[in-house]
Amino acid sequence: MKILIDADGCPVVDETIKIASKYNIEVIIMCDTSHTFNKDGVQTIILSKGADSVDFALVNRVNKGDIVVTQDYGLAAMVLSKGGLAINQNGRVYDNNNIDQLLLTRHLSKKMRSAGVRSKGPKKRTKEDDRSFEEGLVKLCENIIVN
């Protein structure tokens, strides 16, 4: 088992590494050339910029039972199809019960933006968001280890 981080714009890289080390789980950070990560004891894979280059490389590395940290619903859907587990930066676990609705919402939001409808951006990240992520990741790790 390993944890792969879709690190482009991921605010919980350090939290993920801390939790993974507690459970002795390998971490792989994947990002494009516009980001730089140098974390001791963690493999970093840097890919060329391009539409979804990190996503496709990550999906090619994920195995059944691996955990992926991502805020990308499309990537999460591909991870689930390979038997992996996916969690977002706020601790929400993606699963077969919620992924279709999330993808539909993303599609409808994109259509609205294309039609010129303006919406608010994401709210500012809080310490509570970090705690929720940490709790969610710990729960995922412990469930995998027990099963």
From TrEMBL:
<dbReference type="InterPro" id="IPR003791">
    <property type="entry name" value="UPF0178"/>
</dbReference>
<protein>
    <recommendedName>
        <fullName>UPF0178 protein QOZ84_09425</fullName>
    </recommendedName>
</protein>
<comment type="similarity">
    <text>Belongs to the UPF0178 family.</text>
</comment>
<dbReference type="Pfam" id="PF02639">
    <property type="entry name" value="DUF188"/>
</dbReference>
